[in-house]
Amino acid sequence: MLHTVNKSPYETNSLSSCLRLARKGHTILLFENGIYGALKGTCFENVVTDALNKYQICVLMPDIEARGMRVDNVITGIKTVDYAEFVDLVASNSTVQAWL
Amino acid sequence: MEEEGVVKKFLYVNRKAPYGSIYALESLEVVLIGAAFEQDVSMVFIDDGVYQLKKDQQTSVSSGIGMKDFSKTYRALEGYDVEKLYVDKKSMEERGLSVDELVVPVTILDDAQMGELMEQQDVVLSF
């Protein structure tokens, strides 16, 4: 199952609810302002790093770059994806829960 | 000849409080539309979504914000065979809410049960 998060973790609890309720082995994609949850040096780094033991976490690279960030800013272990890989993720999972 | 439709498991995930945005009302509208297609429907209420079910909402022009109190509609869902309503345990506890403060009977799910319910669905619609 795929979960998507498109809100900044500073703005809403979408990321924290997603991390709390998704099941082991699920994939989580961070995009739009959701990418702020994928960055090093933030108050979310530890909780997201821990979550990598339970979930595959991906982040959409164009949204990282659009916000002045680079791949170096992304927490180690998070997979960077492009638009085509985003589509692949949606197509390869039977259901998607969008944490709006 | 009428074609026999395939019954799929639909889950509506509600995470927004009512009135401050259109999400809650739109979700309910979609549920009611979907009910006409006789699918296997469940609704869950997580985060501020649990506030959608709070009893005693007063929204009339004379006493309040002048919007339709659509919380009454949740009580009508049973008539459309939408009977599986679930609330997130942690979201209820965080907000000091108990099930007797809600407009309809619901089942409380813990984190693991909620994840499992989501995983079992054919279609998840998120609001």
Question: What key phrases describe this protein's structure?
Answer:
heterodimer, A: 100 residues, alpha/beta, five-stranded parallel beta sheet, B: 127 residues, Hypothetical Protein Ychn, Chain: A, 27% helix
Describe this structure in words.
The complex is a heterodimer of chains A (100) and B (127). Chain A has 100 residues and is of the alpha/beta class. In chain A, 31% of the residues lie in helices and 20% in strands. Chain A has one domain: Hypothetical Protein Ychn, Chain: A, CATH 3.40.1260.10. Chain A has four helices and five strands. In chain A, strands 4-3-2-1-5 form a five-stranded parallel beta sheet. In chain A, strand 3 (56-60), helix 3 (61-66) and strand 4 (79-81) form a beta-alpha-beta unit. Chain B is of the alpha/beta class and 127 residues long. The longest helix of chain B has 13 residues, at 23-35. Chain B has helices at residues 23-35, 71-76, 89-94, 111-119, and strands at residues 9-14, 40-45, 84-88, 107-109, 123-126. Helix content of chain B is 27%, strand content 19%. The termini of chain B are far apart.
